[in-house]
Amino acid sequence: MSLQPLPLPGAELALDPAWLAPAQADALWQALSAAILWEVHRLRLFGRELAAPRLSCWIGDPDAVYTYSGARFQPRPWPPALQPLRARLQAELGVAFNSVLANLYRDGRDSMGWHSDDEPALGPQPVIASLSLGATRRFVLKQRRDPACRLALDLPHGSLLLMAGDTQRHYRHALPRTARPLGPRLNLTFRRILDP
Ligand SMILES: O=C(O)CCC(=O)C(=O)O
Ligand SMILES: [Fe+2]
Question: Name one GO molecular function term (predicted).
Fold first, then answer.
C-alpha cells in the first residue's frame, strides 16, 4: 500500500492502512509493549490536574524536551525497535523526526480528548506521523471554524496516518472512548521538535 491523500478542506492528511505488513506490525507490538516504560501522565485542564485516561511515554533524542498541557517531559531513550521505523519515515517523508509520543489505550475506556498538536515547539506546520498497532480505533477530526466539517477514520493495526500543513491550525482531533469490548491499542506519533 501507499499513503493516499484524504480530502478535508484546509487540512493535509494521508493514510496508508497497511504501512507495515501484518507480521512486522505484530513483531513491533511485541517489542514495544515490553520495552516502553509506560506511565500515567498528569495533565492540566481548566486549572485542574487530571490523570490522562491512557498510558503514555515521551521518547526522543536527549534534547527533545516537550511541554504540553502544562507539563514538561524529559525524553526517554529510543527503544531499539523504533530506530528502523524512524529511518524509514525519514527516507519516505523527508522529515527528521526527533521524538515520539507513545500512547497505550488499554481498552475501549481509554481515550484522548479533543486537541491540536500545535505547541509552538512543533512549528507552524508540523508534520506528524501516527502509527497504530493493535485494536482498530476510530479517530475523528473536527474543523475549528465549522464543527460540522469533520472526518472519522478507522486506524487499523499497521496503519500510518500523516497530518501536515495547516491540519493542526484548522482542526482538532480526538480518539473517543467506546463501549464496544476492545483489546489494547498502541499509537506512536512521530514529531519534530524544532531547535531543541
Ligand atoms: O491515538 C491516536 O491515534 C491519537 C494520538 C494523538 O492525537 C496524539 O498523540 O497527539
Ligand atoms: Fe494529537
Answer: oxidoreductase activity, acting on paired donors, with incorporation or reduction of molecular oxygen
